[in-house]
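Table 4 source record.
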Amino acid sequence: MPLLYHFIIATTVLGSFLMHGCATLPKDFERPVSHAYTDTGDTLLGQARRDEIAAHPGQAGFLPLGNGLDAFVARAVLAHVAERSIDVQYYLLHNDLVGALFIDQLLKAADRGVRVRLLVDDMDLGGRDLGAAALDSHPNMEVRIFNPFSRKTGRLSQFVTRMGSVTRRMHNKSFTVDNQATILGGRNIGNEYFEADPSLAFADLDVLVIGPVVEEVSTAFDLYWNSELAYPALVLKGQPPTPEEIEQKRQKLSEFVAQQSDSAYLVALRDSDLANNIRQNTVRFYWGKAEVVYDLPEKIQQDFDQTQYHLAPQLGPYFAGVQKELIIFSPYFVPGKEGTAFLTQLSRRGVRVRILTNSLASTDVGIVHSGYAKYRKDLLRDGVELYEMNKRLTPQQRKEKKGPHGSSKASLHAKSFVFDRQTVFIGSLNLDPRATLHNTEIGVVLESTELGGGMGEWFDENIGKIAFKLELKKGKDKVERIVWHGFEDGKPVEFNTDPYTGFWRRFGVGFMGLLPIESQL
């Protein structure tokens, strides 16, 4: 969310000099209440693995989706077989190839009579009200925008005049079909999350979940869908689109999708591992207990100390209960003083703590890296193992590859925690103040030694190939300095400063680390 972060900085510096204005939103409109269907056991998805679910009472089946192609295929297949409902909730929905293919799948389901509810945060929707309203006009499709910006003034100014309101976003990501299957994880909807461009290398993770626990995701979705912060797209548009505008939008989308039928990306999707496993009927689920954890939508409206609305306390027992090993994947990692103290305490009592996050060269949000960098020495000093993605972006590549929302296209984006190789969290939660305090998140905790063990083994075997390992060394002058160990073209390399970065980038990040803005990161 780099665009938001940079605006946060601007408002921190300028806020005391600017008068707070009042951006108005529509009032006195209808927001029909609706809920997930519960009588869906007779659907194709309800019947597909009925015997397998019955053989695992009280458990969930889950299929990790670490490959971007598989992650899109999973969503497309679920949309294709949907019979009653599709509930979609995302932070970002890009206007690109993947976004178009995704919307096309939803529209085709709606054309078949499937009820589609699409809930999207407003962060990515500037200038797209007509398209959202056109979708909302479909008789079987509703579109709602969460925590919208006012349409009566510029967005940039609202980051100042509505500081503490529009700076808190719905970061949730879920895709639920017929209340029988759901996908949770780190991916938004856009090219960089689903390998839609050969030059992109976004490391991410979702999980497809089946079983009774899916109803918990539907419950969470309904809370957001019926929240006073969810505005119907037609209400925000003001004037409904004309039949001609709707037809033009639909025709343009249909023509674009038709043109992609033999494209390299569609061919790759059809030949993905999951697509082949589906054809060969060899898709295999892990099974174990599962718990869905999520922030309540009211979190955005409440003070930070109102933790009854927060996801973080739900995860607390899992972190506190670790006995031997904790593995953390978090693209944005700002532990703060309390988090640093907790992790170092774990390490001192014999727990092996290993953390993979972005390096300064691979991150798309330098200001967040400044919040993390100040804690590296304290963590390393007490035995916490730090790994940073071994990715190299030149300034020109960063400029070319970083879109309006800052995806550097060579970053870690997965958010997952592995507890003692027995329990795994997969979701939208970064370990930084913005995720734990400001935004809303969702994820699932899965109990499976097979899944947890597999992720631990993957870390053991691959971490040296994809990341730098940080070491704290004392020089002859007795000063502690960080050394980065990694590989370049298959040969071991060592860096004494943040790898692949120039002086001015390091200086700028170091300077930002001096600002009193950590709570906003």
